[in-house]
Structure formats: structure tokens, C-alpha cells
């Protein structure tokens, strides 16, 4: 079983001020390690495309996408998927990879979006997936505004459909989360968990394929240590991949 995950990486450019003087440094960080280990522990082969390498390495054809049983986007905005260097710099026509993902799902593929500052609409709407082919296939409707719900006090989602295969071997008591993207389930979606009327975990059949939306993060900060180090973390993500791939 093969899955493709794009995103969950970032660069930081930091300014240090020490009295009169200042200097800068840059750092590269990844938040993919927990998800990578979860799939590895379930004998699921995961190909990871860091956010800054999507232009070069994310598939540009249905044939390339179809090599994978499921595709996940996590904390990567639509501009990174749409604006290749050749289009942005040289005005060269390139495939619309959001349309390709939609066609891939229509043909039987599995697609999941994991929450974050650059997922769904995200911070200052910079995720920018509203009114795109990705919104068409997701089990949720996206807000037209910044959709973040920050909860430094910690919140717990309420399980609605406890019999869903994605919750196989998962207890009813979940760790807390520190935030999520506010999402409204579509009429034909299945809500697995929610928080105050917002779909927290949801699924949907689309065409011959399946889609999944997880409103919070698979990594910090919204996903605190209590979640990413939870004994059932691996099983949950393995179940999600298997459900999208029609293995359960």
C-alpha cells in the first residue's frame, strides 16, 4: 500500500536583536515525523514531498497520481500546488494539480486533507482552497474567511459515528487539541467527530473514490504531545489511509 503526503515542512528566517546589533539566521523544519512513523509502523509505504519541492516532485499527471492508493495534503496552500516556477516566472501552461487530484478521486483514488495554518482556508485565508476543485471533493464546505479556531485552553472533539472503520480499535476518549480549522459538513458527508457544530473528522464518497477531512493537525502546535504521542495515534492514521484506499 502506497500513500503520498505533501506539505508539513517550513523555513524560518529569524532576526536576532542584541542591543544595537542584529543578525539573522534561517532554519528548515519538518512536522512530518509523527505521520511518517505511523505509516511505517503499519507497513504503509509513504512518499513525502516537502512543501518547497512540490513544484518539482508532486505528480503532474493522472498516471503518476494513480501509483498511490491515497494522497494527503497537510499544511500546504493551494498556491504551492498551482504556481509552478515555469508558470509564475515564464507564463508557461502547466497542469492544474488540483483538477488532477479531483479527477484522481473521481476515478477511484483516496484523498485526505489534514488541518493547519495553510490547510482549507487557513490563516488570513492563505490556504485558499475555497471554490477550488479540492473543495468540490472534500466532505466539508469551507468558510470564506480565516477559518482557524485557536483554543489554548484545550478542547475535546465529540465522537458522532463511533462505528466508522476509521475508528477501529480507537477508544472513545481522545486527547485534547489546541485548535482546528472550522469546517461545515456537506449534506452527503459522514461526520465522525465534531466540535460545537464544526466537522472535526469527516468522510465522503466522491465519484468512484473517497475523501477525508481532519480539521486539526497531525503535528504541533494544534496537535499537542498528548495527541502525537498517544498510543492510538498510529492506528488512527493507518485506518484513515486504509479507508481511503478501500482496504477497510
TrEMBL record:
Residue stretches making up the Putative glutamine amidotransferase domain: 3-245
Xref: Gene3D superfamilies: 3.40.50.880
A Pfam family per the record: GATase1_like
Keywords: Glutamine amidotransferase
SUPFAM superfamilies cross-referenced by the UniProt entry: Class I glutamine amidotransferase-like
Annotated transmembrane regions: none
Protein name: Glutamine amidotransferase
Source species: Oceanobacillus aidingensis
Biological classification of the source: Bacteria, Bacillati, Bacillota, Bacilli, Bacillales
Amino acid at each position: 500500500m502506497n500513500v503520498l503526503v505533501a506539505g508539513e515542512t517550513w523555513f524560518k528566517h529569524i532576526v536576532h536583536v542584541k542591543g544595537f546589533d542584529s543578525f539573522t539566521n534561517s532554519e528548515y523544519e519538518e512536522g512530518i515525523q509523527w505521520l511518517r512513523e505511523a505509516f511505517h509502523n503499519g507497513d504503509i509505504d509513504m512518499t513525502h514531498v516537502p512543501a518547497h519541492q512540490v513544484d518539482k516532485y508532486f505528480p503532474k499527471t493522472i498516471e503518476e497520481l494513480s501509483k498511490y492508493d491515497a494522497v494527503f495534503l497537510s499544511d500546504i496552500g493551494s498556491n504551492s500546488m498551482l504556481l509552478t516556477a515555469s508558470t509564475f516566472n515564464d507564463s508557461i501552461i502547466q497542469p492544474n494539480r488540483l483538477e488532477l487530484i479531483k479527477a484522481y478521486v473521481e476515478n477511484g483514488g483516496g484523498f485526505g486533507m489534514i488541518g493547519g495554518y495553510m490547510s482549507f482556508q487557513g490563516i488570513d485565508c492563505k490556504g485558499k482552497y475555497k471554490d477550488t476543485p479540492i473543495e468540490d471533493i472534500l466532505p466539508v464546505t469551507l468558510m470564506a474567511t480565516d477559518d482557524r479556531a485557536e483554543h489554548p485552553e484545550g478542547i475535546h472533539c465529540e465522537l458522532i459515528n463511533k462505528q466508522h472503520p476509521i475508528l477501529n480499535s480507537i477508544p472513545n476518549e481522545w486527547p485534547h487539541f489546541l485548535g482546528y480549522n472550522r469546517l461545515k459538513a456537506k449534506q452527503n458527508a459522514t461526520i465522525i467527530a465534531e466540535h460545537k457544530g464544526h466537522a472535526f473528522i469527516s468522510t465522503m464518497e466522491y465519484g468512484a473514490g473517497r475523501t477525508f477531512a481532519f480539521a486539526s493537525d497531525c503535528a504541533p502546535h494544534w496537535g499537542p504531545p498528548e495527541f502525537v504521542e498517544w498510543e492510538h495515534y498510529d492506528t488512527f492514521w493507518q485506518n484513515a489511509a486504509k479507508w481511503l484506499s478501500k482496504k477497510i
